[in-house]
Amino acid sequence: MKGRGVTAPAGARIGYSKFLVCAAKRSLACTVAGVGLAASAQAADLPAIEIPGITKDVLPDTLTWNGITLLGAIDVGYAFQTNGRPLGSVISGLEFIPFTTTRNYTGQSVSTIAHGGLQQSFIGLKIEEELGLGWTAIGRLDTAFDPLRGTLSDGCRSFVENAGLPYNQQNSNADSGRCGQILNGNAYGGVSNAAYGTLTFGRQATFQLDAIAAYDPMELSYAFSLLGYSGTDAGSGSTQAARWDNSVKYRYEYGPVHAGAMFSNGGSGTGMFGTGYAFNVGGTYNGFSLDGVYTVEHGAVNLQTSVNDVAGVTAIAANISDNETWGAVGKYTYDFSSGLKGDGPGAKLTFYAGYTHIDQSNPRDPVTSANAQAAGGYALLVADNNAFTTDKILQILWTGAKYELPSGWSFTAAYYHASQNSYVADGIPCTLGGASRVDCAGSFDQGSFVVDYRFNKHFDVYAGVSYARVDNGLAAGFPGTPGAKTIGGVNFTGTATSVDTTDFMTGVRLRF
Description:
5% of the residues lie in helices and 46% in strands. With 512 residues, the protein is mostly beta strands. It has one domain (2-511): Beta Barrel (Porin), CATH 2.40.160. The strands form 4 sheets. It has a 16-stranded antiparallel barrel. The longest helix is centred in the middle third of the chain and has 9 residues, at 207-215. The model is unreliable at 1-53 (pLDDT under 50).
């Protein structure tokens, strides 16, 4: 079955058009990273697993009443990080990797109860009601929350809480499109028809977010995936643009081929001031699945590090950019029971690969700070329209494999790489190189491995490890590098050209 423009689990045969209702990104959480509810939305569609010796699943397959289905996930556990920041008063999740705006690691190891190892906890509703003549009314409402605090996800608030603080006094904070909105995930409705396609309106995941959610071997895990923890790829360079408000999205499927188009008006307070448009095309054949996405965004919001914000002021600083992105993703699944992907009871081995090319430039329509707002209505104290004097080119690629057994065990390994060019920001070029400025050329690398055991379709336990490192320009600004600042009379600069961290997390996840 195809969903979100990609191949979905074989047991989830509810039809491509209906599956669109379930597509959403696990948050970028804080990031962004937001992004991922997308994979978690399939929970209600997973096939049941009967495992000898394991207590029978006591939850119903779906919690549905009159075409309205309750969806949700809770993911909590324990984490240890060799280099990071402690949990914050707003963001109680770790800054799992150093590919981050905050750049606040100070060599502190963190051992703590944590959440979001595999995905963002959320709750929501899926609407699917037959209208007759082949038409179905569809919709989705969902919001992400912090299961350790019982509060809505609010990445922007974490910047306010850490505004102007020296690096060693900060706690977890990260840019995100989830900024305290009541519905910080998806909020859309529309109609679907097998012959004419699916048309939806509202706040929706971008095609880029849909694609990486379906082709990330770690399924947008926060603890183990660059694509999950950081919303940069999902938002075509800007985390806050991973989901478009005021958007219309159309998808059409013909046999093994699917295509779609998307448009948004944007607007203040949405994470993207100008318009955006995107296209997707893809297909499946004998276990192979391929997708391509092209996206353009105008006036996207990129929060600056919180050390640039003014202490005690609720307004935040951001760079404004126009983004152009293209990407290609693919996967192949070998079913050991049939030799091809299917519904057989055998083990499955899936290989994944993807590439994204992001071009960020100064906005064609500059944004003034007066009355300008980031996602969630947070006021912008500074809106920098010259942060990309010359274009920033960011390239992201990944590969990995997942081996799944009928007994409920799965083993996943993945590798992620990102690189940026040396560009000019605010008219000042990188002349010294290395980690002297954040606009110098730099790279990021991450390797991760996860073991997961699924008792049934609703409950699983997992453990995994990840190692991630940033070099040169992508490391600049961290304490100990030449790009770090002197704050509160303390000089945090140094000669380091790289920053790394190792994460271990084990947890439990409940999905319904």
